[in-house]
Amino acid sequence: MVDDSEVFRGAARSLVERLPGFDLVAEASSGGEALVRFADAAPDLVLMDIRMAGIDGIEATRQMVHRWPTALVVLVTSEDPLDVPASAGCCGAVRVMQKESLCVSSAAEWRELVLAQRTTGCR
């Protein structure tokens, strides 16, 4: 999970802890830190905030997917969908989701993404 807001990371942490089959293996507060942590933790799925200081979520996703082609990144944002940068659609993320829509039912979609990647190698 990558977000510069400790409040959001705490809320997302609580959500992930309630999801059967998911474990939180790492947290980062910036895109640069996420790249380092991904190398160590090798998570199945990354929730990545779009807007962060330094290396933002879009650039961090681009670099992550380039280095680790099987990386599954879901970009998250609190912005209006019309304000999401166009580059979010072509950086290698498998989804862009509103932070407000993250809930226990999101786990079904995440499970499908991870399962598809594991069985086919496709993102």
Descriptive notes:
The chain is an alpha/beta fold and 123 residues long. The chain has one domain: Response regulator (Rossmann fold), CATH 3.40.50.2300. It is 40% helix and 11% strand. The protein contains 4 helices and 3 strands. Strands 1-2-3 form a 3-stranded parallel sheet, covered by helices on one side. Helix 3 links the parallel strand 1 and strand 2 (73-77). Helix 2 runs parallel beside helix 3.
Count of the separate structural domains: 1
Q: Number of helical segments?
A: 4
Taking all residues together, what is the mean pLDDT? Answer: 87
Strand-residue proportion = 5-15%
Q: Give the strand tally.
A: 3
CATH homologous superfamily title = Response regulator
| Gap from first CA to last CA | 18 Å
Give, in order, the helices and strands.
HHEHEEH
**At CATH's second level, what is the architecture?**
3-Layer(aba) Sandwich
What's the gyration radius in Å? 13 Å
Counting helices, strands and paired strands, the structural category is alpha/beta
Tell me about the largest β-sheet.
3 strands, parallel
Give the overall silhouette: globular
- Low-confidence segments, given as residue ranges, are none
Question: Which fold name fills CATH's third level, the topology?
Answer: Rossmann fold
Question: Into which percent range does the helicity of residues fall?
Answer: 25-40%
Give the strand line-up of the largest sheet: 1-2-3
The CATH class assignment is: Alpha Beta
